[in-house]
Amino acid sequence: MSELLQVVNLSKRFGGLVAVNGVSFSVQEREILSVIGPNGAGKSTLFKLIASFLKASEGEVRFRGQRISNLAPHRVARMGVVRTFQETTIFKNMTVRDNVIVAHHLRAKASLLGYFLASSVARGEEAEFGRSADEILAFLGLDAIKDELASNLPHGHLRALGIAIGLATNPAVLLLDEPFAGMNHDETMHAVEMVRGLRDRGVTVLLVEHDMSAVMKISDRIVVLNFGEKIAEGTPAEIQQDENVIEAYLGIEDDAIGF
Amino acid sequence: MTRKAKFAWVAAFLIIVLGVVPWLITVTQRWDLYYTLTSVALLSIASAGVWITFYIGRINIGQGAYALMGGYVSAILVVQYGVSFWLTLPIAGLFCAAASVLIGLPILRLRGVYFAMITLVLTEVARLLALALPITNGAKGMVSIPLPGAVELFGVTLIPDFATLDNVKPAFYYLSVILMILCFAGVYRLVNSRLGHLCRSLQQNEELASSIGVNIAYLRIIAYSVSSFLGGIGGAIFVAISQSVYPSSFTVVVSINFMLNCFLGGLGYVFGPMLGTLVLYFGWDLLFQTGKFQLLIYSSVLIFLMVALPNGLLSLRWSGKKQA
């Protein structure tokens, strides 16, 4: 395994508030790595920094050895680091299939003028994207609802659609923002399988999540943040034994971290 | 709609605007209708531009600025440099597109009501500029602009000199209508290609669009410059018809009307601005007899329509179809 993504001494300050403070870790190829931590620990900020939606105050993020922090978000996405959002972030007034088709944009090679004039490259891509979208929807079990308007979908399907959008960009690294939030046990188990399926397709997955039992089940490794600093890193078994982690979650019953 | 049905619609539309309407006008001797319909065609070209900015999720109340700009560019080139009108037409459009890139770079970062406010100011800025700049001749404006000349290719006259025609009204009508058809065909193609898909992704969620790799800043500029291009062309022909241009030729009210045309026709339909312009233009004229109540009735009807039909007049047809 090789290091795909490196976070090096990354910090983010908002005025006087230090949201992320000197965090370093690396992500191996085809690994599922979870970032956990109490509320306000800086998990979401860390994600935005990695996807370059925020500018880092200090430090940098490297992807395949290349610095990607502070590039425009669409360029980072183009390189293969793609962020998905919480459920509300989809193209609401498009059908499910259109959502996924438009998300293929990263793979597009035709120019904007080519689209307008329907060049042969553009037409070929259009057909190819349609096929690929159908394949992704089938993979995630969404093919029955592909012509529904996205705004009409129930909760669980929206989450799956978010993942479908991420998958359509053909990412090397997919950042999932709370993929299991608000799901019941069965839905979560289904989603866990879905994320494992992503990894089997060759995608490296980085996720932020609150649902500890899901995190413990799914992750190869876990990074724990508290007050913007990394306090632990290791396998689920190691994290469950870690003194710092238990302390950080103090006040919460032990079973909250999966004992 | 099937290919055949689409083809039938287009054919019927072409026959009506290029054949039936001129024939009816000749029969009824209502020559003034030429002028009215020409205006509708030109205004709907500019409205189509506004519609495109709506399509990327921006409320544009500044199209009057580009119409004025296009008008002045064409007028100045024709009067002071003796350039053929036919050449100034694309130049006016491109000049506006270039200007809109410079203006758009900073202001397209704004969203919602903030963008709308800035564009509203833009029209007023354009008017004041036209008053102040030496080249635009201030409040006196530019008058007696010569009519478009002839276009010859290899000795064959493609377009006759407008000044030699007995009646210039039909000529301008055909010019405007044909341009309108070309513009709407272009916009239709844009919307139904992958570009339209991308524009809609921008309209619905810019953050997500950029995370799937869409260069949102670039796409916004492209859409805005296409929009301004259409505004500039519309303005340039208007000036050629009236043979004059003043700083008050296109004011804030005109800009607002462009936006209303889009609202009324329907923001989700390419041909919305065309229908909206037609209805608003004739609606306003019809209400003329109500005298001082004209504006009151006009605004009340508009408010009612926006509440009752938020998706525009064209949504009537589609919703009717779904139920059937």
Write the topology of this structure.
The complex is a heterodimer of chains A (259) and B (324).
Chain A: E1 3-14, E2 17-28, E3 32-36, H1 43-50, E4 58-63, E5 66-67, H2 73-79, E6 81-83, H3 96-102, H4 112-117, H5 120-139, H6 155-168, E7 173-177, H7 185-200, E8 204-208, H8 212-218, E9 221-226, E10 229-234, H9 236-241, H10 243-248
Parallel strand pairs in A: 3-8, 3-9, 6-7, 7-8
Antiparallel strand pairs in A: 1-2, 1-4, 4-5, 9-10
Helix pairs in contact in A: 3-5, 3-6, 5-6
Chain B: H1 3-28, H2 32-55, H3 63-81, H4 85-107, H5 112-132, E1 151-153, E2 156-159, H6 168-192, H7 194-204, H8 206-211, H9 216-242, H10 252-265, H11 272-286, H12 294-308, H13 314-323
Antiparallel strand pairs in B: 1-2
Helix pairs in contact in B: 2-6, 2-9, 2-10, 2-11, 3-4, 3-5, 3-9, 4-9, 6-7, 10-11
Your description of this structure?
- With 259 residues, chain A is of the alpha/beta class.
- Chain A has a domain at 1-80 and 211-259: Rossmann fold (3-Layer(aba) Sandwich).
- Chain A has helices at 43-50, 73-79, 96-102, 112-117, 120-139, 155-168, 185-200, 212-218, 236-241, 243-248, and strands spanning 3-14, 17-28, 32-36, 58-63, 66-67, 81-83, 173-177, 204-208, 221-226, 229-234.
- In chain A, the strands form two sheets. In chain A, strands 6-7-8-3-9-10 form a six-stranded mixed β-sheet, with helices on both faces. In chain A, strands 2-1-4-5 form a four-stranded antiparallel β-sheet, covered by helices on one side.
- In chain A, helix 3 (96-102) crosses helix 5 and helix 5 (120-139) packs across helix 6 (155-168).
- Chain A is globular.
- The relative contact order of chain A is 0.17.
- By secondary structure, chain B is mostly helical.
- Chain B has two domains: 1-30; 32-251, no CATH class.
- Chain B has 13 helices and two strands; from the N terminus they run αααααββαααααααα.
- In chain B, strand 1 and strand 2 (156-159) form a beta hairpin.
- The longest helix of chain B has 27 residues, at 216-242.
- The two termini of chain B are 15 Å apart.
- At the A-B interface, helix 2, helix 3, helix 4 and helix 5 of A face helix 7, helix 8 and helix 9 of B.
